[in-house]
Amino acid sequence: MNVQRKETNMTPLKRWFCLALSLALAVTLALPAHAVEAAADSFASFLIDADTADFPEKSLNVVLYRRNGSGAFVSDDSVRYSCQINRVAGDATFYIQPRTEGVWVEVDYLSDLNGDGTYEMLDGESAPVCDSMTSAGTLEAWNGTDHPLSNGQIYLLSAQTLRERAQAILQERVSSGSSQYLGLGSTTPNLDSMLYFVTLHYVSPTTKEEYSLSYYLQLFDSVIVPSDVPFNAWYYSSVEYALENGLFSGTGKDSFSPNSAMTRSMLWVVLANVEGATLTPGEYWYSGAQSWVAQEGISDGSDPNGAITREQLALMLYNLAGIRETDPIDHLSGFSDRSSISPWAEHALNWAVGQGLFSGGDGGILNPRGTATRAEVATVLRQYEQLVVEK
């Protein structure tokens, strides 16, 4: 295992330079903690036990903030670099085990307050803005004292603890008048966007050289959301819901393709997932769902590669819900493009709008013949499950 090393009597490196130089190692997936074996040439081990984990290489853009003369944090420097991110979801626990005396741990929090993909890193210099792990294994704001951990003892750091600390720190950074206020972005940033920069330190008592092991962590509540779904996107929670409940799958190893058109075959599979249908495999990946929607009267099963339109989506959901009566209330009167609705879809769209599944765009446009994207379908399906199925 490679270890970053520097002389302790050198002028401290700029904090962003330490970020860029850090190895950002991949965490080893652990068996129960008692089965953990550390690398022989490492002063400490850092392992993870999680429901789900992956380790993509990502390019990060980090802006460093330092205090000005009045004590307020202002942008001072920036750096772009690639590193490995340890992403976990569910009930995750991290295990830290020193292999010698004198190891201490600090945690920095990289936020993305305005959701633009650029992370904020705060450097308090003589008064660092980070957390340190105490000898009792808890996290607390750094108070000027490092806390050496005991050789051989296993310290547990839970994802819940990290997220609770991150929530408090996010609140500090968006609250005017607080010591960490940055004056950026939303007052309710997405907690999933936070990066946790965990560093294990050790200074050799003989050579006075400092060694460090650094890890980037990203924590998701229930499911890892693909990187092409922005944290501040209007559809983020809907995609998360669809993945968590097994309604959708991604389009690649780390992609959801939210802005791509939803094909009819994709929708058949999703609707089968909604119903928990047992499908019979066929020639194509969608063959079982194609047969099922035709048998259930949800769709005629034609044109599997065609893009689904909004009115087709409404009709399939209308059929899925088993609606037979006509809603006496006209929910379509306020849409300027009502005349473009196909006659066969009018009852279904009237029902869908009345149920809160569909809404209009700018200018009161329903856009019935427009293509529905994967993000839009995920949002409508979430609404369907919550407003129709669970009603």
Write up this protein:
By secondary structure, the protein is an alpha+beta fold. The protein has two domains: 4-220, no CATH class; 236-389, no CATH class. The chain is built from eight helices and 14 strands. The chain has helices at residues 15-21, 159-174, 236-244, 264-275, 287-295, 310-320, 346-354, 374-389; strands at 4-7, 28-29, 44-49, 52-54, 57-67, 73-89, 93-98, 104-110, 118-123, 131-133, 139-141, 155-158, 195-203, 209-220. Strands 1, 4, 5, 6, 8, 9, 10, 11, 13 and 14 form a ten-stranded mixed beta sheet that branches. A four-stranded mixed beta sheet has the order 2-3-7-12. The chain is elongated and about 80 Å long. It starts with a strand and ends with a helix. 38% of the residues are buried. Mean pLDDT is 86; it is low at 1-40.
Quick overview:
The protein has 391 residues and is an alpha+beta fold.
Features:
alpha+beta; 391 residues; 10-stranded mixed beta sheet; 8 helices; disordered N terminus; 4-stranded mixed beta sheet; 2 domains; elongated
